[in-house]
Each structure stands twice: as C-alpha cells, then as structure tokens.
Amino acid sequence: MRSRLTSFLGSLIVLAGVQLAVAQGSLGLPKTVEAGAAFSVHTAGSGKGVLYIVGPGQVLRRDVQLGEAVSFAPGDIHNAGHYLVVLTGGSSTENGEFDVTAVHQPTTLSFIAKPSRLPVDLHDGISGVAYVFDTFHNLILQPTPVSFQLSGVAGAPQTRTVTSKNGVAWTKLDSASKEGSAKFEARAGNVVDERIIQQVPGDPCKLKMDIRPAGQRLQLETEPVRDCSGNAVPDGTIITFTEIYDGGEATVDVPLKRGVAKTEMPAHNGATISVATGVVMGNEIRWGKE
Amino acid sequence: MTGRILAFIVALATVALIVVGTVWPFQSALVTAGVDSGADMLRPSSSPQAAVENLATQIGRRDWEKAYSSLANKNEFEETDFVRDLAGSYPSLRSHASLDSFDVRPQHESADDAQVKLNLRWSTVVGTFLDSRMLRVVKTGDRWAVAWPIVKEPRVPPQVIPVNYLRWDVIYRGAEDDWGAQDVESPHVRIVDMHPVDRGGGVVIMGELLNEDVVPAFVNVKATLLAKDGSALATEDSFDKISHILLPRQVTPFLIEFHNVALSQVDSVKMQPSSTLVAASADPVVEIEDQHLNPGSQASLSGKLLNQSGQVVNVAHVLGTFYDNTGQLIWVSDGYAERALLPGTPETFAMSVPPDIASKVKTERAVTTTYSSTRFQ
User: Fold this and answer.
1) What is the pLDDT of residue B21?
2) Which end of chain A is more exposed for a tag (fewer CB within 10 A), N or C?
C-alpha cells in the first residue's frame, strides 16, 4: 500500500515536471508517429542529459548526449495516444509533445452480432458491430471500410460496406425467409471474423388437427406444423389440446415430434376439441352428437 | 408485591399444565412431538375411538409393523400393501411426508361394530394435505380393532414403453473467450397478460408468460411496485406460483403476492420477466382430464393427471388459471398430486379457489410441471 502511494506521488511529480517543461521550450520531434514505428528525437546543446517520454500506459527514460539524435527502435512505443517529452540537462529543461497513431492496417476485429437466434423474415433483425484494431490492439480511429456479409442456406448473400467512425462500424440486416444457420462475416482489409446466426421458424400458421376414434378414447393428431413462410416448426414446440364437454374439461400439452403432435383424449359425445400453440389458435372440432 | 404474586401464579399454572400434559397426553400431540418409545403411552383399545387413535399414532410414528398387526382385516392384504397405501410405492410427496396431526370423528356405533372417520393431515415441503378414511371398527373379544379400507396402489406391469426421446442440451461460451465472442442467446419470453388486484390486505399480481422461442427456458417473473414519487414500495417474485421450465410456445400463469401494500398506494408496476437457456426434456407428457370446478364454500378445481409417457413422475405440480366471462384472468392457484404418477395410471389432484372468485369463473386452464427423481423437468 505504502509503495503504491509512493509510486503514485512519484508519477504526479514527474507529470508536474513534464507540464512545466512543456511550457518552457521545444525539441526536434515528429508530430505523429505510427505505433510500433522507429523514430528519433533531435537534441541541441552539449553535455549529458536525460530524456523522458510519458504516454498512455508507458514511460521511457533515456540517458542522452545533448546535441545528438536519440533513436527509438521499432516497437519501443506501441500504445496509441498523446505523448509528452521532457529533456533535462544541466540547468535547462526542454520539452515537447507528439501523437502516436494506430497502424492503419487492421489486424484484429471484435465483432458483436446480435441476436444469435431469431425468427425468419424479420426486417433489420440482425445487428452487427465491428471494432477495428491494429496489431498492438489500438482502436483504428481513421475511417476504415468494413464489409458485412450475411449468407444463409438459400438466396443471395446480403452485403453492406460501412466506413468505420471512431473505430466502430455497424449495420443492420434482415433475417432470411428460410430457416437455418446463416454465416455472418465482418471483413476489414484481410481480417475476417465470423459469427453464426440461427434463423428459426416463426409463429405457426394454419394449425390444424384431425380426430379419429380409438376405442373409448380419441386419437388427435395435427397436420405437419409450419410457419407462414413454410418452414417446419421445430420439434419440442408445445401444442395444447383442449376438450370441453358437459361439466368438465381435459387439457394436454404435447411436444411436436417429427413435425406433428399427437395424443389421446377421452371421448365425450358433444365435446368441443380445440388446438393451440402459444397465442396462436388452431381449428376446433365438435365430436359426436349432443 | 403484586408482581411477585403474579409470578408465583404463572409458575404454579405452568407446573400444573406440565403435570396434566404428562399424565393425560393428547394422542395427536404425541405424534407431533415425535415420541418414539411411546408404546406404553397408547390407551388400551377398549373403545372404537381409542383403537383408531392408537392406529393413527402408530402410523404417525411409521411403526408399520405394529399398525398392521393391530388391524382386524390383515388377512385381506399384506403389510407391504398397507405401507404402499399410506406411503406410496414410488418416491413422492406422500413418501416424504410426516403426519402433522390427526382427528377422529365417530360416525356410528353398535355393540360390536362402529364407523369412525379418520382425518390424517400430512405435512410436506410444499404444504399439508388431508387424507380422510372412513374406518370400520369391529369388536373382537374385549378390544376393538380397525378394518383398514385398503387402497391398493396400482402397479405397472413390467414392459418396455418406446419413447421418442426429445431433449435439448446447451454448450455455453467458455470463460477464456473474448468479450466480443458469441454466446448462446437467452430464450425470448413475453408477458402476454398481467392484472394487479387488491386482495386480502395486499396486492396480488397475476398474469401469463409465453416462451416465444424455439428452445426451453428457465423462467421467473419479478415485480416491483412503484409509488407516485417513483420510489419502490416492494419487490417480490413469483416463487412457486409459476411453472419455471417453459418449453417452446408454452404458456405459464404466475402469481406474485405483496403483503401489507394497498393498491391505492401503487402508481405503476415494473415487471421483469427473466429467462435462462437450460437443458430440458420434452417428456413426460401429462394429460389433465376430468377437470371440474367445484363451487361452494370450499371451492376447488379437481381433476385427474394421466401420465402418457413411460417414465415415473415423482411429483406433479398443477397450476390453474381462471378467467371470467370476458376472458379476463381473475385468479391463479396451484396444487400437487400426493402420489407418484405411474405410466397410464390416473392420479387425482385438487387446488383450492377462493369462493368469491369461483363464482365468477367462466373458464379455466391447467398446466403441469413434473419432477422426477432422476432429473428436473
């Protein structure tokens, strides 16, 4: 705890010195440096000095011979941001500042695609957001073209090219009318990231059942259940059969298996039998005579 | 001085009550207190009532051997049948229940024959249930013995029941994955009906929740009552008045109770349905048949559960949703089947409905949630 406090105070003192130095003079510095690139700082005068470079998450210190150029090797400075430079030597202090920018070539994409599962035929249902980073994980703030492509099991792929703003590019796309897994790609330069979007059937459409007697009971079976685009509603979807008869009621929740739901219910003369799933109603059948 | 007299009187009364309770213990209280070595505390079966009380005490202690040996008609069935009748053959609420209390109500008595009603109140983790038996008590020699009306629990004959087993399993993202990496989407659920009412000195919020996704969901509903100034008055969730596992396109009712809050204090209600993708099975399928709304002062919805699958269901929870003649949701109630649901074997259930609500009910809908000892559904 004590050592942390000491280092914090030390940093404050260094920064205060740097601020003071900035107000006092200048150095032979590049205005901007690309992250990871080699560069040099020209100094004037004679004798020995110390050069400090203070930036985001990084502080460099070099003992220098005044009047000579100080060289920094590739990779010495790799965090993008604003840097302050202080040169101390003898009784004088010189100072300056420069910016480190991200490498223009994208190396990494953070691609967020939502949702990972959605019904078919949904306008602007899929959103993709891509963050563009360079090789040092600096967000590339320069406008960069990012291409989004959604290719499904059928039909032509949907493609959008968006120029990133402040390192972020985003788009919205429609889900296809046919169920299945779609590949959602984001591409910036040679970098590609991929997500899988599961396009699932929508609400069942035209739910219909048939009834036939089976001894003292009735055998109920739906026709293959499909959504309004003709996709088969997945197995496991609950279909509710309800039988209302004189003074009583029977219900059963049946999961779809192999595309249909079937069950048995008691046979009551004059009973009204209906079928539904979720908030979608199907047909209704009156059994026998009252 | 007055305080000392009062303390003396209280101490004296306490000692007197302890003596009375020890010398003349109440049979039902013995059971509740879990007295094990209380065989000597049983009264001689010199009357029909004493015989029934002794039997109930032995049942409460789960002393099946002594209870069975005291019966007048033990030649009609085996001890195992007697145990299955009371505790069930398969693990169920009944097999894990303990006798909370009992009462004995003589109905009719002659010189060597009597009829007595025995009410056994069993305590379970989800509440109590009542098991009423009308007993015939016969005099043999100088003692009375109970002829137990055995209810033989049906046994499922050995067989193979083919099941097209449908199940969802889930693979979640790993802890080491990047923050932008894709994870499985939570199921999409939606509240399709919600209705707050002022009732019993509190607020009750009831409604229905739909799983509109193609995957199973573990769901819950949380509600926060907000005052006019936007402050939260109370927060509760649906706890056990909901079917927590919702299969695709399944609808569950829910009921949330707030005690000591008046509806007039409430400006708005914040509803927070939550869902988590879980592994689940589409089986077993349970039919709810012979549903009847029984009006009156002890109004109830009763019916039978029929397990259409091949798997034994240990505990079945039934949720009832009640609507008035305009289709408005007016109440949500629940009940449990005491016994395990065997394949193809009907089992009764009942759930209470407030009498004033029952008189307004036009239609009702029941759903079940089942629990099996091998897995959760």
Assistant:
1) 75
2) N
